[in-house]
Amino acid sequence: MKKVALSLLFCGGLIFGQEVRILTLPEAISYALQNKADAKKAQLDIRKGEAQIAQVKSSAYPNISIGSNTSYNPLLQETVLPGDVFGEPGKQIKVAFGQKWTSSNNIQLSQVLFNQSVFTGLKAAKTTREFYIINKELTEEQIIEKVAHAYYQVYQSEQMLLNAENNLQITDQTIKIIKGLYDAGLARKIDYDRTVVAKNNIIATTQQLANSVQLSENALKFMIGMPMAEKIELPNQTFDPAILPDSDPGNFEDRAELRLASKQLELLEWQKKASEAEYYPTVGLIANYGFVGQGSKFPLWNGSKNGVYWSDLASIGLQINIPIFNGFATKSKVQLNEIDIEKAQTDFNETKLGLDLAHSNAITLLTNNMTTINMQLENVKLADEVLSNTRSNYQYGLATLSDILDAEKDLTQSKNNLTQAKLDYKLAEIELLKSQGKLNTLKEIN
């Protein structure tokens, strides 16, 4: 009936035939992990890490390239030679060297034999991929936390609406009592009018709370990446505390935040080693093979019969580069890396301390909220008794209408306070699970 009322408020009528998805918390989390943009981007980062590994590996593989250059020389460069060379002493003779057409074709192979930067980069790339995997886990935990918050907010909004609807029923009962007394001449008309005004105010509040339910459902849909047009309904399940305070903080070393910070330290260590690799010499092998064609005609499809002559050439070389001095640039780079490592270590220690604080706070919140829940349960029971007694006293002239209306407000406020206390407890449960690294258990809660 509540869903029917909400549909009437927002749509002006029911949209028959549209399927309503019953959404449990594990289903909401699963949907978010499959459809939320942050989860998709975290998965893409893992693929990015794999591509980076392949990119670094390429530096260790042989590189093969083919080059070809064909040129036409309309004017050949002339060189002046002494005539003695040609048997004409005392003269200077111009001689043109080369041919009108020249074609040079070459294939080159290069292979890194030793390069510390390549080897270091390959290990760093693997660490980067591991960093992305841990970051994906942390992203999923953050998504689970946000979805759980949004999910419980929907429950709170629905419970507040239910409290208002119950209050409306209570007010209707009060109106019937006042109306009966008024018809019998035992109550004033102003008392009846005041109860009608109170009812209208509750109706207005109920409509506002219905809006709040719809807004909280929309927020949940956005949080899990679900289209706004899809209809959802949360199942009838308890909103009561499910997790008791647990002083065991678990193993902090297994927390995604710490593992991510640790992996960040490892990456910075590799970055330092990459800088130190500039001190090492590099050794590479280069092999070339080519052939050159020269003649008066286009060489690529002509041979000696057409005045084009071909010759081949080959070379094998060893390239060695030994760094001697670069103005202390490498030393400065290593020092900067060491500073980054020290800063990251400080952040690591701060993160660990923050996790310990979060766990301690979650225990305190759970304990305090449990006390508040028990107190509010007693409050609701007592407020209900006060309202019943006040109604009875009113019929005998021992209480005023204001006493009844105040008792109704107190009952509603007590119920709302109980709802808020339960929500606070559920949010504290999330914080406790987060501090213990157990947020994934929310995917299995029924």
UniProtKB/TrEMBL annotation:
Keywords on this record?
Cell outer membrane, Coiled coil, Membrane, Transmembrane, Transmembrane beta strand, Transport
Q: Which residues form a coiled coil?
A: 404-431
Q: What is its main location?
A: membrane
Q: Which InterPro entries match?
A: OMP_efflux (IPR003423), TolC-like (IPR051906)
Protein location: Cell outer membrane
One Pfam family, short name: OEP
**Gene3D superfamilies to which the protein is assigned, alphabetical:** Outer membrane efflux proteins (OEP)
Family listed:
Belongs to the outer membrane factor (OMF) (TC 1.B.17) family.
Question: What is the name attached to this protein's record?
Answer: TolC family protein
